[in-house]
From TrEMBL:
It holds the Pfam family Pyridoxal_deC. The keyword Lyase applies. The keyword Lyase applies. One of its GO terms (cellular component) is cytoplasm. InterPro entries: Aromatic_deC, PyrdxlP-dep_de-COase, PyrdxlP-dep_Trfase, PyrdxlP-dep_Trfase_major, PyrdxlP-dep_Trfase_small. SUPFAM superfamilies: PLP-dependent transferases. This is Aromatic-L-amino-acid decarboxylase. Homodimer. Belongs to the group II decarboxylase family.
Length: 255
């Protein structure tokens, strides 16, 4: 529903209405965050999702299902089924009222992925799934608090779910070095990412552009994710390893 690297959100309501006005297909890729909408307190983030023509959610990311299992909703499935329809004589039949799922994708058949999701829903139920989602979101907030209290790190995203994006303050190269050293130690695995910002154009008093030159600033950061099975012990362990590695790097830098 937004930016993958930092789990930020787009304004689905505004985008959806623009797509509706100009007859543009509106697809919402809610691969990670979509599952969080099961919790009522997060549903405001999905405002406008009802305008979508199609929605995708990866159940294997937050819904306790092993890889791979994705959910696809279509406002009008005939758009897909008509595009992929094949009707040779050997596939024709006389059954009525049954969806022709073979016409919903390029391949005629697929694995029974829905079965493992059905088992999870039957085993846990909505109440327990919501509890597990909130639990690992809370653990991410605790990790964020540890980094903030430390004072040497800055948080670069709005931590709402399980993702915490952070870096050593104001320094891309040291953040890259931190990532490299953590990988070499093999005790904590983190993914490196970045985002880019463009400085705005300069305007005169008449609001006329006088300079088209822009400056791009790159911010490098690390991504930490709290997932199902993560405990407070894991959070403390990860923080201690990251903090220790940061101390080594900063001591070398300040020599």
């Amino acid at each position: 529903m937004g930016t993958t690297s930092t789990c930020e959100f787009e304004n689905l309501y505004e985008i959806g209405n623009i797509c509706k006005k100009f007859n543009i297909w509106f697809h919402v890729d809610a691969a990670y965050a979509g599952s969080a909408l099961l919790c009522p307190e997060f549903r405001y983030l999905g405002k406008g999702i009802e305008l979508a023509n199609s929605i995708n959610i990866n159940a294997h990311k937050l819904l306790l299902v092993n890889f791979d299992c994705s959910l696809l909703w279509l406002s009008d499935h005939t758009v897909i089924s008509t595009a992929f329809q094949v009707d040779p004589l050997y596939l024709q039949h006389t059954f009525e009222g049954m969806p022709e799922y073979r016409n919903w994708s390029i391949s005629l058949g697929r694995r029974f992925r829905a079965l493992k999701l059905w088992f999870v829903l039957r085993l846990y139920g909505l109440k327990n799934i919501r509890h597990l989602l909130r639990l690992h979101f809370d653990l991410a907030k605790k990790f964020e608090q540890l980094l903030t209290t430390d004072g040497r790190f800055e948080i670069v995203n709005d931590v709402q779910f399980g993702l915490v994006c952070f870096r050593l303050k104001h320094n891309n190269e040291l953040t890259k070095k931190l990532h490299e050293n953590l990988l070499n130690k093999g005790e904590v695995y983190l993914v490196l990412s970045s985002y880019h910002e463009n400085a705005g154009q300069e305007l005169d008093q008449m609001n006329t552009t006088i300079s088209n030159q822009t400056t791009t600033t790159t911010t490098v950061f690390l991504r930490f994710v709290s997932i199902h099975g993560t405990t407070m012990k894991d959070i403390d362990y990860a923080y201690q390893k990251i903090a220790s590695c940061a101390t080594e790097i900063l001591d070398q830098f300040n020599e």
